[in-house]
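Deviations from the work plan: none for this task. Representative record:
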Amino acid sequence: MSEHAMSKWENLLAKPFGNIYNFNFFALMLLTVVEVGAVYLDLPKYDTWAVLVGVGLLKAFGIAAWFMHLRGDPFILTKTAIFPLFFVALMIFGIGLSTPAGIDALPSWCSPPWAPVYQP
Amino acid sequence: MSSEDDTWMSATVIGIGLIVFGAMIFAISAGLVASGALHSNHQLEEAIHVGGIVAAALAILYGVVGVLVGIVNQSTAGEYEDHGDEDHGDEDHAHHGSWSPVIIAFGVMLFLMGFIKANLSGEFGILAVGVVIVLAGIANWWREDFGNDGVDEPVSTGEPFGGLEVRKVGMWVFLMSEIMIFGSFFSSYLRLRMGWLTHWDATCDPYNGVNAHAAGGHETLVHCNSPEMVSQGYMVVASEFIGESFWTLLPGAINTFALILSSFTVVLALKNAGMVDWQAPKNKFVRMWMPDQRRAVRNNLAATLFLGSMFLVLKIVEWNHLITGAPNFNLGNPDVALSASVFYVTTGAHGFHVFVGLLFLLFFTFKAQKGGWTPENKQSIEYFGIYWHFVDLAWVAIFPAFYLY
């Protein structure tokens, strides 16, 4: 893990903690507390979602950028990491957020009668 | 006895120590449960019983591996002593070709075929052969690499990865496929969750009447899993059982912190292994943890191993709580909930990744005990670290989606 040339804002974050890895560690710990706290505070549904998604993205950035050191590595590795996210987005928007009736409308060859069949 | 012999001997001694330690964990946890001292707290009793078995099994597994590392490497000590010498002609590189990945891949194929066979007919023969071949492949790989103290980092010459280390590129391409695997789990869960009526939208008590805060604590709410709610299409999800109380959420929360901490210890191990002019830390307590370069690397890798093992132990404790305590989460129940299936598949796949990482970590830690990590070959820790951080990253998505939400 090379100590890459850090930008101004990274230096600003790293300074009180000695280096960027220490900062990242404490930030990840703090963000996890925020996550758990947001759920236990019983905020309105969409506020909780916003906190969970926002904090999740920040944590993912911290891990990928500094712990996996994409920030210091050639950009082609970042592109490699981002590439599958296109397919993940397709899966989430095409399947994850598809209409609830979609799964029942599948052709019969697509849904063999596996047993036991779940009956809600 | 040469220092090389000492190293192998220490791996064997540590291995035997771990086996004894595992037996002690098992004896203590079994003794506590048998004494009846914990009868008043059934959940704690269950946690100690199951956690004790899993922790003992892991310690014994690590111990057996340690003994094997000691024996195998004593028999091959010195075989790779000239590794890393300046005389590295192309012909010297020929022995880097390894059959181990092919052996492991063949073993995995048999294992998966055997897994299907075992599920269909209950015969475990092919599955067992697959496991033995995988273990043989891993042992061979370790034997080949354990004594490798030198620089041998193939660099890509073709575009678009020209100039980059081949193993690093390989790791990232592997992680591409991993991202898609977890992406498919996640989209399946999201798709199913969109069609379920859960406690976010229903006026009912998801917490067995213990903690009815969801829709006004003063109201007497019907339980979400009651026939009345189920007939309306209500689906009980894992987070309702896990979020039942502070104590049931605790294993998942500890695991989250443990994974973050383990990511940090891998970073510290790498940082210390890569220092050309290593200096003891100024802080007294940090210096006790990292008194010299070899122990700085070893202790941080061992801490990662411990935290990862703790993750697995708590994971099994948590699964046990769900399987035994939640009606539709019992895998033996033909009416097992779809929400249980998707939870077990996703968290199980993640747990499997942690377990595979621990097998690598075990090798890394034993090699660190030997003083095998230097600024010249620290890249292996870096590439393992990328995998381990990915496991942490996957948990960043799983924890809020399955445990909190």
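Residues 131 and 389 of chain B are 27 Å apart (CA to CA).
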